[in-house]
Amino acid sequence: MSTHAVVRDDDYVIDQNWVGYTADDHAVWDFLYRRQRTILADRADEALLRGHEALNLNRGGIPDFAVINEELKARTGFTVVAVPGLVPDEVFFNHLANRRFPAGQFIRGRHQLDYLQEPDIFHDVFGHVPLLTNPVFADYMEAYGKGGLRALQFGKLKNLAALYWYTVEFGLIETAKGLRIYGAGISSSKDESIFALDAPSPNRLRFDLERVMRTEYRIDDYQQSYFVIRSYEDLIRATLDQDFAPLYQRLADGISHLPEAILPTDQVVTAGTQAYARAKASGEVI
Ligand code: HBI
Ligand code: FE
């Protein structure tokens, strides 16, 4: 038995070992799936709901990657690969740049049905993977992976992680029927699926690439600001049209905004109650 830690220089991909899931693991998936689909019926963007159906995630039990990859790969060339949990940023970006989504292999226990910090298979496969059936969003995720590898070279990972956080994890999209959820951090969370659309306290601000990349975020609480895109086409256009080299030069000034801030330059979709009052008091908003 070797005593030194196994230093892995691989891509952290492991076997999903679908046969290894217990009956209770499958029951946890079924419970979470049914509960979130009920909550999201009139809250999630159609593209996410259609992605659940395209991949037949309601077939019962934890999805077998070998099975969903046939459909996913045929649609956008993406495949899901199993990883033990969070992987190093460079490994993560490299997977996305090659149209592989690294999904947690484990599923949460019954004691943590409502929240867990580490992305498990429900967060990843219910929250993130279905949107990869949408060609435009799939292009965005590949572009994000490539951008991430470049950001590492510029030492601007924190700014790029903020972009991921406020779009892929906690993004809202404007539709004819009103604001809808597309971020996986919201769509896989019972409480935040309600809070993000209904609560008066958070700000809902129009997406702006540089503004978002300068915005701090909390990983242990509901978001205090959500950013709203008009469409996935708008989101990828904003990203692909951006020449990141001069942007990274500007970001070198290190200016960042608190999660609850409303800037005079913000296009406010709905101002949050707490933040608005505080910003008003400090004269940050006119
Ligand atoms: N690893 N498996 C996994 N899943 C993620 O979502 C993930 C990650 N590593 C890094 C990471 N996300 C974030 O730092 C990104 O913003 C880069
Ligand atoms: Fe995630």
Describe what you observe in this structure.
The relative contact order is 0.12. Strand 1 (79-83), helix 4 (89-97) and strand 2 form a beta-alpha-beta unit. The protein has 286 residues and is of the alpha/beta class. The protein is globular, with a radius of gyration of 19 Å. The protein has helices at 23-40, 46-54, 65-76, 89-97, 121-128, 135-154, 157-169, 184-187, 190-198, 209-213, 232-240, 244-251, 273-281; strands spanning 79-83, 100-104, 172-175, 178-181, 203-206, 225-229, 268-270. The strands form two sheets. The chain has a five-stranded mixed sheet with strand order 4-3-6-5-7. Strands 1-2 form a two-stranded parallel sheet. Helix 4 (89-97) packs antiparallel against helix 6 (135-154), helix 6 (135-154) runs antiparallel to helix 7 (157-169) and helix 6 runs parallel beside helix 11 (232-240). It has a single domain, classed as Orthogonal Bundle (Phenylalanine Hydroxylase). It binds 7,8-dihydrobiopterin and fe (iii) ion. Residues 83, 86-87, 89, 92, 102, 119, 148, 161, 164 line the site of 7,8-dihydrobiopterin.
